[in-house]
């Protein structure tokens, strides 16, 4: 009886999890189904399946938003920002862990405290400082902003993971004649791979889909990312839902494939970082 009760509870939990997963997939159904419909059918019945696969929405949206150019901008911004976050975050966290001092502890506390500050509260000061240093309307300025805003979480995650790496491994490398930089790049950084993949995935999802910061920093049409190009389908008096939904599918698809391909590394990085030694 006890075994049967456990099985029933397990089946009930699995059924609830499946229903919850289906509930979260409902918005994706509306997005994908309506991306193939003409505008009139979307207004008539948004929940129905498309009568035919209308690829015209995708081809027209592809041309109108200049998708390849927007994709290149989004890819360049994401890759460069992630590279900066990974290099800066890993080195800073390693230094704070291996060289404990009052200054490093205070600095780590400030990074953690910065995680609770909402972006909306610093938008106006950010634009003023960006204008002073000529960081507006150019990609390097946006890269610097993403590295700054993403450093808090990145350093926090790396900080916990570095503690799980035995210091004896580094001491053995020093005895063999390895320099401090060699110890980090040859010994420590390869061991950080699980957490590095986790940080890459989390920050890529954020940067690729971000709308507000590029909207503030990039005013020139030639610098538009995919979210900014998609927003061009929503005017003051008209909303081109048929083209906008197709553009959303094209914009979301690359990052969804990237996430599904690397999602196992999130659990691997979290579990590896939770074990000491």
Please give a quick description of this structure.
With 277 residues, this protein is mainly α. The protein contains 14 helices and no strands. The chain has one domain: MetI-like (MetI-like fold, Orthogonal Bundle).
Tell me what the CATH architecture is.
Orthogonal Bundle
Distance between the termini: 42 Å
Please, how many helices?
A: 14
Q: Biggest β-sheet: count, sense, barrel? A: none
Average pLDDT value? 86
CATH fold title: MetI-like fold
Describe the protein.
The chain has 14 helices and no strands. It has 277 residues and is mostly helical. Helix 4 packs antiparallel against helix 5, helix 4 packs parallel to helix 7 and helix 7 runs antiparallel to helix 10. It is globular.
Secondary structure layout:
Blueprint: H1 2-34, H2 39-44, H3 56-64, H4 67-98, H5 102-114, H6 123-132, H7 139-162, H8 167-175, H9 180-191, H10 193-209, H11 212-217, H12 226-231, H13 241-262, H14 264-273
Helix pairs in contact: 3-13, 4-5, 4-7, 4-10, 5-7, 7-10, 8-9, 10-13, 10-14
Which key features would you list for this structure?
0% strand; mainly alpha; 14 helices; 75% helix; disordered C terminus; 277 residues; MetI-like fold; globular
